[in-house]
Design goal:
The protein is built from five helices and ten strands. It is an alpha+beta fold. Strand 8 and strand 9 form a beta hairpin.
């Protein structure tokens, strides 16, 4: 088990405030590929839908900079947290104005916070990352990501079959090809999403793991459809448990005024990912 001391936390906290800015032309084809992976095709109207900014500003990582798990080796822009497991645990995004394809945009990223907690599985280190996507000098999307680092821990139990999924609710069954395609369009090389022997033997999962942002994107699109074309102003999600390839997931939405609450439920009834979208 990795030992975390006060000096480690102090060293990693020194990264707070570090920032970088990258620019990119928002190509329409890149957006269409991202949306196709989510099961959506057709014209976009030249506007990047909520959370589809994840198709852009991807890490420019050389092969020699990839670690054994497929993630970028520790160090560089992010704090070099020594805990071996890294996950995208939560996010909160505000949509201030439309983000248009066919134009240049800039993404400013900043380390906002580093926090250490002790949980049932041992030490946890939370790194908060803020990203602001702008066009013509005006902020369009402001996102806060929560990245959690943890120890290897015990093997993850498989999902037990529960009651049959409700027929009136959409069911999403992400397969290995779906996970590979999402990894491809987001330039995500974490091996738990496409290398089943690694996912099971090394990281202790019962199968390939669905990306948290993949599930969040599906819930975001469900919320948008539920709201019937109203403009989304905020979207926040939290991942509580993993989802696995080949296992059906019930996608649930509930609208209440300007709010649409969504959830991705496993066969055992556990809400693996929950989300909240606000509309105007």
């Amino acid at each position: 088990m990795t030992q975390i001391g006060p000096q480690d936390i102090a060293d990693w906290s020194a990264f707070v405030g570090r920032g970088e800015t990258v620019g990119q032309h928002l190509d329409e084809t890149v957006l269409k590929r991202f949306l196709l992976v989510l099961g959506e095709a057709g014209a976009t109207g030249g506007i990047v839908p909520p959370m589809a900014h994840w198709a852009y500003f991807l890490p420019m990582t050389a092969n020699e900079d990839i670690g054994p798990d497929g993630h970028l080796k520790r160090g560089g822009f992010m704090p070099p947290v020594t805990l071996p497991r890294r996950m995208f645990a939560a996010g909160a995004t505000r949509f201030l104005r439309p983000l248009s394809t066919g134009r240049e945009a800039a993404c400013a990223t900043r380390i906002a916070d580093v926090a250490h907690k002790s949980g049932r599985s041992g030490d946890l280190v939370f790194v908060e990352v803020e990203r602001t996507v702008s066009q013509s000098g005006a902020a369009c999307v402001v996102e806060r990501q929560t990245i959690v680092y943890r120890d290897a821990g015990a093997a993850v139990a498989p999902v037990e079959r529960g009651d049959p999924l409700a027929l009136e609710e959409p069911v999403w069954t992400p397969g290995p090809v779906d996970l590979f395609r999402f990894s491809a369009v987001t330039f995500n090389a974490h091996r738990i999403h496409y290398d089943e022997p690694y996912a099971t033997a090394v990281e202790g999962y019962p199968g390939l793991v669905a990306h948290g942002p993949f599930t969040a994107s599906m819930l975001c699109r469900l919320a948008a459809r539920t709201a019937g074309g109203r403009r989304m102003t905020e979207f926040a999600f939290r991942a509580a448990a993993p989802l696995f390839a080949g296992q059906p997931v019930r996608l649930r939405a509930k609208a209440d005024g300007d709010i649409v609450e969504t959830a991705a439920l496993r066969q055992d009834g556990l809400a693996a990912v929950t989300a909240r979208a606000t509309f105007e």
